[in-house]
Amino acid sequence: MLTEAAVRDALAKVIDPALGHDLVSYRMVRSVEVQGDDALIRVELPTHAYPVAQRRELVIPVEQAVKAGTLADVPVMVDFGEKRAERPLAELVTRKLRPGDIYTHMYSGLRGEQDESGHVNAGMVEGRKRGVNFDVGHGGGSFAWRIAVPAMKEKFIPDSISTDLHIGSMNAGMKDMLNVMSKFLAMGMPLDEVVQRSTLQPAREIKQDALGHLSVGAGADVTVLRLEKGSFGFIDSFGGRMKGTERLSCELTLRDGKVVYDLNGLAATDYTKQPPRK
Predict the structure, then answer these.
(1) Rounded to an integer, what is the distance from CA 110 to the centroid of its chain?
(2) Which of 71, 161, 187, 270 has CA 20 to 30 A from 106's CA?
(3) pLDDT, mean of residues 12-19
């Protein structure tokens, strides 16, 4: 059975060529979560801009992450940082990432996701053909209507819909998961597809096949949503607004069969039927 110690031992054999140290001793492995035969590994670089000197050095972090993912038999997710001519996005998704790996912030427009003619980067199209998954990762600065809307019209839709939740994003255009899902309703994605790409598909991407569905024997993690009709506005990461006529809201949430959120008391007992308190 896979253990955290075994994963860390494997990662200790991955040597960063720029630093001459392994990922573990240099504290680049921030966390390891083991669930059965799967492991979710979080690796962080020593500095935000590391390394920056030469073109070869610019791709080392990605190559090392992929190597670690191969050793642990898990996919890697890459936030490619800022756009750099020395490390084109097309090279990342057509040559560096493996089938099953994940490119996030696909609609940011900050890393060359859209070419000069306004179309989806041809490298991303080729990357998808290779089996690379593309994730929304809305965040506080990585979702632009001017990138997402044309891409959706070209049928370049996300494999997984996600928030990149943090203090900045939750208090700006992203807000929460349902708001992000509602944005895809506004762009014409059918409701069942929005739900699938927010639940089942992300679970499959990270090899968590027990999650994201309600099959017999699965954990009772259930969300009851309400589809509201009206006039709504949705803001991207750069202050752009798009109108919509539908919005999702949460009525009830169960975690492992227990109610953890109940907006309108759907699971509660009518007060007139409650027994007297002693």
Answers:
(1) 17
(2) 71
(3) 76
Residues 6, 202: Cα–Cα separation, whole Å: 25
What's the confidence (pLDDT) of residue 132? Answer: 98
Residues 207-218: what's their mean pLDDT? 94
- What are the CA-CA distances from residue 18 to residues 52, 58, 88, 166, 198 (Å)? 11, 10, 20, 30, 37
Domain holding 177, by residue range, is 75-214
* pLDDT tens digits along 136-187: 999 999 999 999 999 999 999 999 999 999 999 999 999 999 999 999 999 9
- Number of domains observed in the structure of the chain: 1
Q: 86 in a domain, yes or no?
A: yes
Q: Does residue 10 form part of some domain? A: no
Flag whether 198 is in a domain.
yes
CATH number at residue 186: 3.20.20.140
Query: What is the pLDDT at residue 45?
Result: 65
